[in-house]
Each structure stands twice: as C-alpha cells, then as structure tokens.
Automatic annotation (TrEMBL):
Residues 15-226 are annotated as: Phosphopantothenate--cysteine ligase. It comes from Streptomyces cinereospinus. The lineage of its organism: Bacteria, Bacillati, Actinomycetota, Actinomycetes, Kitasatosporales. The chain holds residues 176 to 401 of 401 of the full protein. The keyword Flavoprotein applies. Catalyzes two sequential steps in the biosynthesis of coenzyme A. In the first step cysteine is conjugated to 4'-phosphopantothenate to form 4-phosphopantothenoylcysteine. In the second step the latter compound is decarboxylated to form 4'-phosphopantotheine. Signal peptide: none annotated. This is Coenzyme A biosynthesis bifunctional protein CoaBC. GO terms for molecular function: phosphopantothenate--cysteine ligase activity; phosphopantothenoylcysteine decarboxylase activity. Keywords: Decarboxylase, Flavoprotein, FMN, Ligase, Lyase, Magnesium, Metal-binding, Multifunctional enzyme. It catalyses: N-[(R)-4-phosphopantothenoyl]-L-cysteine + H(+) = (R)-4'-phosphopantetheine + CO2; (R)-4'-phosphopantothenate + L-cysteine + CTP = N-[(R)-4-phosphopantothenoyl]-L-cysteine + CMP + diphosphate + H(+). Binds 1 FMN per subunit. In the C-terminal section; belongs to the PPC synthetase family. Its EC number is 4.1.1.36, 6.3.2.5.
Length: 226
C-alpha cells in the first residue's frame, strides 16, 4: 500500500455512528442541552469511511462541522429523534457506535408559546422525565446476530470501575471510557481513553488526536466482526 493509504478492512460493512449532543426543547426558543461538540463522532465516521465502510452518521446539533465526504448524514435534534434515526439505520448495520451525548431527561411539557416572566412572580419549577436509553435498547435487542455495539462514557473518580459497571448495565460489546478533567475538556481536538470489552479486555489509548482513538475503536470492532 502507498504511504497514507488505509487497509479497507471495513469494506462491505455498514456502520452507524451517532455524534453530537441532543437538545430537549422547553419552548420554541429554549432547550436543555450539553457541551458535546460531535468531533469524536465525526472522526469515527471519517475513519470508518476511509477503511471502506458504508457509514450512516446520525448527527445531533453539530452545526459547524462539515459533512464527512462519502458519508450519509442524518440530522436528529432530540433524544427521541436520535433514537428513531439510530434504530432505523441499525436495522442492517454490522456495527453501531453511540458517540452522541444523549440527554438523560427532557422537560415533561413543551410550551408551544414562549415562556414569559411576569412581574413579582417566581418561576415554575422545571419538571423532567426520563428519556429512553438507546444504547441499552439496541444492545438488548440486536437488529442482527453478531452486530457489534459500542458506547462512550465520560467518568470521574474511579473511572475504570464506573466504566465496567456501565458496560455491564448497557449490555454493549465495547465501552470507550474517558476521564473528564483538566485538559480533557469538551470540544478539544485530543482525547485519551480506555476501551473496555465485554470479554474483559482493556485497551488503553494514549492522549492524542480523536482520529487515533477512532481507529482503535474500528480495530476492535473489525476483530469482533471477523
Ligand atoms: N446513551 C443512550 N441513551 C441515553 C443515554 C445515554 O444511548 N438515554 C448512550 C450514550 O450515547 C453513550 C452511553 O449511553 O454511548 C453512555 O452514556 P452515559 O451518559 O455515560 O450513560 P448513562 O447511562 O446515562 O449514565 P450517567 O448516569 O452516568 O449519565
Ligand atoms: Ca447520561
């Protein structure tokens, strides 16, 4: 292979990647959101395409990131929309990687008109309800036998123990665990992680570009598909 060329080890495969962060609307102008930039998910989509996969990228509020060349991009704003888009794309997928930050809760009610403040009146408390857990759902009810499912988790404190518990709870095959802290901020170009496998494996990924972490994820996925 020429220098810079990549082994097309995902040729003939369909992979689904979710990226970005969901926004749960309160009224026509306001939402509950998070700081996920979408960069790690986009790096996963680009690297999978470079390795020959057909890629569906389910993008949640990633304005500013260019659509990766040769990738099908589906927009999904809320957790509910992301769930619909991921379930649909996963139906014939060999692998699904949930890199999106999905809101755990959404406002119980949506106000069709803008919420207004009134003189001398305290605000109403915000009532929230749980969103469905997409990763747990697709892991428990695989669209295809042998489909490889990957989650992401940002943790503090006992990062590995928390990651192991989460991997078991979700029922996915791989969980990429990031430590949240100092230089590991949202929106950065770099990442450091450990990829935990349901088979007990542990793959450390040193601090470096998000493409490097993405390639390690695809290496582990390709091993499991083989
Ligand atoms: N996830 C999901 N659906 C949700 C919440 C999370 O599919 N409603 C996925 C994320 O895309 C990610 C993984 O689950 O791949 C882990 O997300 P995380 O927020 O760390 O997990 P939670 O179970 O929500 O745990 P926590 O209480 O720590 O937020
Ligand atoms: Ca969560």
């Amino acid at each position: 292979l020429a220098r810079g060329a990549v082994e097309p080890d995902l040729a003939g495969r369909h992979v689904v990647v979710s990226a970005g962060g969901t926004r749960e609307p309160l009224d026509p102008v306001r939402f509950l959101g998070n700081r996920s930039s979408g960069k790690q998910g986009y790096a996963l989509a680009r690297t999978a395409a470079a390795r020959g996969a057909r890629v569906t990228l389910v993008a949640a509020n990633t304005t500013g990131l260019p659509d990766p060349a040769g990738v099908d991009v589906v927009q999904a704003g809320t957790a509910g929309q992301l769930r619909e888009a991921v379930l649909k794309a996963a139906a014939d997928a060999d692998a699904v990687v949930m890199a999106a930050a999905v809101a755990d809760f959404r406002p119980a009610a949506y106000a069709a008109g803008k919420i207004k403040k009134r003189d001398g009146q305290e605000p109403e408390p915000l009532v929230l309800v749980r969103n469905p857990d997409i990763l747990a759902e697709i892991s428990a009810d695989r669209a295809r036998p042998g489909q490889v499912i990957v989650g992401f988790a940002a943790e503090t404190d006992d990062v590995l123990a928390n990651g192991r518990r989460k991997l078991e709870r979700k029922g996915c095959d791989l969980l990429v665990v990031n430590e949240v802290g100092e230089r590991k901020t949202f929106g950065s170009e770099q990442n450091e992680a450990v990829v935990l496998g349901a088979d007990g494996s542990e793959t450390p990924v040193p601090y470096g570009p998000k493409e490097a972490l993405a390639d390690t994820v695809w290496d582990l996925v390709a091993q499991r598909l083989a």
